[in-house]
Task: inverse folding
């Protein structure tokens, strides 16, 4: 079974280096263009299921990347991490912070969410449950299935923590996915392995 794990297209807030989290931000024009380009690259692939974050930047990317050929299943478990009081703030604001939020990119094992926010541990747990309950059972029905997930930068890295079996210290291993980048994993019924970045 193959999983195409895709990060949504670029938004204005991405361009401004702002923490978006659960804010429902639209795709920027270049985000729409990149998602359309991705759709052309993927048009020869038949997907058995397509999942998306319910946030419109991911859902719209999923529509464009599949050229509206599939029913897209929105799942709340795929919503980006909630940054709480830091949403809308810039990465520069984070670097000036004296709280442990400042470790988000540099030492994720020390990260603590801002007021009203979500921990990395919680996000990793909910994505692990999503993969175990919604994706892995598909293998038993169709070992050749091709699945697409369109979600978010941090959310996709949380999924990768489970797929690649590593902890928070290596949360940003291999860096943040580019917008509209597809990382492909294979599942053999027991374990996941990355086959393409």
Result:
């Amino acid at each position: 079974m193959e999983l195409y794990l895709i990060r949504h297209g670029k938004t204005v807030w991405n361009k401004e280096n702002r923490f978006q989290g659960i804010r429902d931000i639209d795709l920027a024009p270049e985000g729409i263009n990149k998602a359309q380009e991705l759709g052309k690259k993927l048009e020869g692939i038949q997907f058995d299921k397509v999942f998306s974050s319910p946030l419109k930047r991911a859902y719209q990317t999923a529509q464009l990347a599949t050229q509206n050929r599939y029913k897209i299943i929105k799942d709340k478990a795929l919503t980006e991490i909630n940054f709480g009081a830091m949403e809308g703030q810039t990465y520069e604001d984070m670097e000036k912070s004296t709280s442990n939020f400042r470790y988000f990119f540099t030492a994720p094992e020390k990260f603590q969410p801002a007021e009203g926010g979500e921990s990395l541990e919680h996000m990793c747990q909910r994505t692990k449950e999503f993969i175990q309950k919604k994706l892995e059972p598909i293998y038993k029905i169709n070992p050749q299935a091709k699945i697409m997930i369109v979600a978010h930068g941090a959310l996709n890295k949380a999924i990768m923590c489970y797929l690649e079996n590593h902890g928070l210290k290596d949360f940003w291993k291999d860096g943040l996915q580019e917008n509209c980048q597809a990382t492909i994993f294979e599942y053999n019924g027991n374990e996941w392995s990355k086959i393409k970045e």
